[in-house]
Amino acid sequence: MNCAAGIRTQKDAVIGHDMATPMNDHKKQKANTHRHIRGTLFVLLLCLPGASLLAAGKAASPASRPARPMPTLTDKTLVAWLHLANRTQRAGAVLTIMDPEERFDAIVYGEVTPNRWMAGSNFFRRTHRAQQGWPAETAEADTLIQIAIVYRGRKVTILRNGKPYATYAIDKPQPFGPDASVLIGLRYLGHGGEIGPLAGTVDDARIYGVALTAEQVAALTPNRPSRPAPLAWWHFEDGKASDAMGTFPPGRLIGGAQIAGGKLHLDGKSGYLLARRPEKLDRRPQSMFYKAKSRQTGRMWDTWLYLHKGTYYLYYLAKAGPRWNNISMATSPDGVHWTEHGRILAKARGVTWMGTGSTWRSPNFAKDGKYQLNFSEWRGPRQTIFFAESTDLLNWTRLGKELEFVQDERWYEPRGRWDCIWTLPRPGGGFYGYWTATPKAGTGGRFGFGETLDGLRWKALAPPKVHGVGGGEVGAIEKIGRKYYMMFGHHPVMETLVADSPKGPFHVAKKNRVLLSGHTYFSRFLKTPGGVLVNHHAIARSGPVYLSPLKLAVLDRAGTLRLAWWPGNEAMKHEPVAIEAPKPHDGPGNPPAIAMCAAKLPAAGGVIVEGTLALPAKPRARRRGLYIECGAGQGSAILINAAGQAELGPMKADGTGFKAEKKADREMSFGTPARFRLLLAGSLLEFYVDDILIECFSLPADATGRIGFLTAGGRDVVGDLKAWR
Q1: pLDDT given at position 2
Q2: Strands (E), 277-319
Q3: Which tens digits make up the pLDDT trace of 338-382?
Q4: Three-state SS sequence of 88-129
């Protein structure tokens, strides 16, 4: 058979199909369709653009291929075949196309007027509101309906079962570019959460990159190819959520959505399909201080990590809007250079805000191959915990409300905090869990405690006894050496609690009790083959939030926990930068209080400075340290002595006017001279002595790149200076 003959045969089969067939006879029609496709499909593979994804009547999965290039859509057609579960539902969408700015066009049912189909859009900008004269929907749940919306210039046409339903003019069309996403069964996904779920079953959903005519729409048949070929097509015949045309990456089923019998089943509550093209992000890796740039992510806050086969998976709670409304992520091959991936979960409908979580491998991983993630949501008067799962740590599916973990009122306040489970292996299988909670007075507890066998169904237990600290937030807990160390937060301080048993009791650390403070918060652990790491976020005074460089958790002989320079951070050192120590004072008059380096360092993009620093051995002696310029005649100083007592705060360029904004006491002795490291990027800095973290700090303004050292009567206090971009 030649190509022309094949096209004619397929045209007869598709466009010439008898559209008078009752929609109720769809099952019979579907069987006939499958028999006919098998006879003509091979030629179709060779002749129809975009139809080469079909084989043996089924769509080959595009999961192994990247999404095809997508043109900017202005004229377009949205088409779907569905069974509407009930006619009384309101404001749900069958099919939505949406951009990162949250502009969308959608096939919506009953939002403005009950029982009417409409062209939904952001703020009704392309929606006609006078709908009383439009036909009311009469189909029962067992009747298949075809709904199509055609956008041609300023004209919008709605078609039901191929027949005109409504036509009107709009001010201007909305273009959708290569970063668009598709929702099936949901109207909107963005800053406001998940809005507009639909109850019913979707048999077929398509997007055409052209405005089809009414005749072309009437000629379409569900689960069969067409000419022109659709730009995107979900037919569910293969049991998958994939776009058969490969324009969009494989979709994810969210909540109560499932595919069965060649249809997408939607519960009208939490279920929908999400197919998201890669967002236009700056894919260049960031190092030192990482910041999310996606507009769908917004401002970061709590962070946590998971390490798998050499890849570091970074997750963070964030808000693109006034409240925490999503969890987003980035990955790194080395724990230093981070590539952003964007949003992976959004708050559900009716949720006030989301809370943070953590990630672990399923206790049944050998059988189910799944990873699990917990997060909290404030619904109504209280906060409770929910779960999501993934098979690749990148694509996450929210699990159902039946797994919601709520307060056990025997020990915990029913409307108290209930947030962020951190896990430890449990003898006999499963996990122990520790989370932020509000134990009842008299329990002696400060946080939640429980257990699970499968990672998803949790049982709360009585809270462990805690001594020496009030209420707060569980950052993380880990067994290091022979003891259990918990990082416990009271914003802006992270304190260390210690126990001999996972069940407690817990006591505050005897030394170095305050692990982090000030312009940082919420530290978490990460077990790696090279030791236990700690991550946390840094907060610039101007508002942005960053992931700080990873640190190594270290213990001294007395079991005191401190944070140290992680050797993996050596990968930050990209290029050497010329730097020389200030010359000794040999002129007339008194030496300056601050000796400035001549070189101006590239502080805006990030710089590391290392050297030796002579520290005063006596605790009461005047501290020495560094001066970082951050404006004309002004800067900030880091002052420290050999006992590990440090002060950080503003200082004038002549060495006067120092004010200690922040104090840290690492309660350990350093040698003199000691080696120091200064990490500086914009307004953020970290300072280490002999590889122990002294403190993190945010300058009043971005560093200019000029640094100096506080002198000691003209004597040299600094040596062996080196710097890297």
Answers
A1: 33
A2: 299-308, 311-319
A3: 999 888 898 887 899 999 999 999 999 999 999 999 999 999 899
A4: CCCCEEEEEEECCCCCEEEEEECCCCCCCEEEEEHHHCCCCC
The 272-276 sheet, strands edge to edge: 117-121, 104-109, 92-98, 181-184, 272-276, 252-254
Residues 130, 187: one domain?
A: yes
Please, what's the b/e burial string for 653-669 (b: 16 or more CB within 10 A of its CB; e: otherwise)?
Answer: beeeebeeebebebbbe
Q: Are residues 479 and 438 in the same domain?
A: yes
Kindly state whether residues 315 and 213 are assigned to the same domain: no
pLDDT score, position 621: 62
Please, is 59 exposed, middle or buried when counting C-beta atoms within 10 Å of its C-beta (0-12, 13-18, 19+)? buried
Q: Are strands 692-698 and 684-689 parallel, antiparallel or unpaired?
A: antiparallel
Last-in-domain residue among 570, 604, 632: 570
Instruction: Single out the residue in 55, 72, 94 at which a domain terminates.
Output: 55
Owning domain of residue 509: 299-570
Residues 556, 649, single domain; the answer is no
Residues whose CB is less than 8 angstroms from the CB of residue 333 and which lie 6 or more positions away in sequence, other chains included: 310, 311, 312
Q: Would you say 463 and 449 are in contact if contact means Cβ atoms under 8 Å apart?
A: yes
Asked if the structure places residue 379 within a domain, the reply is yes
Together in a domain, 118 and 245: yes
Global pTM?
0.76
CA distance 340 to 347: 20
Least confident of 226-235, 448-457, 592-601: 592-601
**Looking at residue 131, which CATH number applies to its domain?**
2.60.120.200
- Altogether, the residues listed in the chain come to a count of 725
Number of domains in the chain: 4
Q: What is the C-alpha to C-alpha distance for residues 606 and 703, in angstroms, rounded to an integer?
A: 10
State whether 443 and 550 are in the same domain. yes
**If you search the block for the tokens 């045209």, which residue do you land on?**
11
C-alpha triplet 465, 470, 472: angle, nearest 5°? 95
Confirm if 495 and 573 have CB atoms less than 8 A apart. Answer: no
Please state, in angstroms and rounded to a whole number, the distance separating the CA atoms of residues 527 and 553: 10
Region 174-191 average pLDDT:
92
Which residue type does 639 have? L
